[in-house]
Write a structure and sequence with these properties.
This is Sec-independent protein translocase protein TatC. Forms a complex with TatA. The chain is mostly helical. The chain has 2 domains: about 10-195, no CATH class; about 195-273, no CATH class. The protein contains 11 helices and 2 strands; from the N terminus they run αααβαααβααααα. The chain has helices at about 10-35, 40-50, 55-70, 90-120, 125-130, 130-165, 175-195, 195-205, 210-215, 220-235, 240-270; strands at about 80-85, 175. Helix 1 packs across helix 4 (about 90-120), helix 4 (about 90-120) runs antiparallel to helix 6 and helix 4 packs parallel to helix 7. Residues about 1-5 have low confidence and may be disordered.
Length: about 270
């Protein structure tokens, strides 16, 4: 069995390494955020506020799907009856800065992963260190897929639901800029992090904090939670809820499979040692 090549470092040395990890990662986010300034018109008009228009890709896709399934215009979205208004003097300025930072974080995510890997690599086996590129590539792909899932599925479904839900015709929807941006950031980041679940489970299993038996035992609860989330963020129709729920269930099942593989390898190595 390979032995870990651990570099002896004091607690303060680890803190210093962690401090520089945060500094370099923050610098990367700021640099990428600054670069998004040059495409800010496209970032805000097309990307951020795209889901507020009935011509958005997801709405058109669902409408085409509705026709193909023989549902006519039952899930077609022709209008979104609401407006977004700014109620704070510095509201648009703050929104501009924070959304550039969010875009910078998403673009700099692979570099941040590389920094995290560099920080934990001294505690890994030599063979595990060689998998750095694979780890960063897979983690980045999962994160970007999660961000796209949040952007093209979760946000449009959420916007459509809150825009069309009303307790009375007397009430008109006028959402604040802060509430819309808050929903946008939460949906994108939460989806990106959720798609990192297989990677998180991989490390938790290696550390012995999670076992495949534990995941299988609570699978039914995970399924219920996923279905509840899908029901909350989508309109009350089976097609939309299914489209949201299936990728999340696949990610969970993939995590169970990864945990099982890692656990078997871990047990085998312990028996050989």
């Amino acid at each position: 069995m390979e032995k870990k090549q651990l570099k002896e470092m004091s607690f303060l040395d680890h803190l210093e390494e962690l401090r520089w990890l945060l500094v370099r990662s923050s610098a990367a986010v700021i640099i990428m955020a600054f670069l998004t300034y040059f495409i800010s018109d496209y970032l805000f008009d097309t990307i951020i506020f795209g889901p507020t228009r009935a011509t958005f890709f997801t709405y058109r896709f669902f409408c085409d799907l509705s026709h193909q399934l023989g549902f006519a215009d039952s899930i077609c979205i022709t209008e979104l009856p609401f407006i977004i208004q700014n109620t704070e003097m510095e509201g648009q300025v703050n929104m501009f800065v924070w959304m550039c930072i969010l875009a910078g974080f998403i673009l700099a995510f692979p570099y941040i992963l590389w920094q995290i890997w560099s920080f934990i690599s001294p505690a890994l086996y030599e063979k595990e260190k060689k998998n750095a590129k694979i780890f960063i590539f897979i983690s980045s792909i999962l994160f970007f897929f999660g961000v796209l899932f949040g952007y093209y599925i979760v946000i449009p479904m959420s916007v459509n639901f809150v825009a069309t839900f009303t307790v009375s015709d007397v009430v008109k929807n006028q959402f604040t800029l802060d509430s819309y941006i808050g929903m946008f950031k939460t949906s994108v980041l939460a989806s990106g992090i959720f798609f990192e679940l297989p990677i998180i489970i991989y490390f938790l299993t290696k550390l012995g904090l999670v076992t495949p038996e534990f995941l299988r035992k609570y699978r039914r609860y995970a399924i219920v939670i996923v279905l509840i989330v899908a029901a909350i963020v989508t309109p009350p129709d089976v097609v939309s809820q299914t489209i949201v729920a299936i990728p999340m269930l696949i990610i969970f099942e993939l995590s169970v499979i990864i945990s099982s593989i890692v656990y078997k390898i871990k047990i085998k190595n312990e028996q050989l040692s």
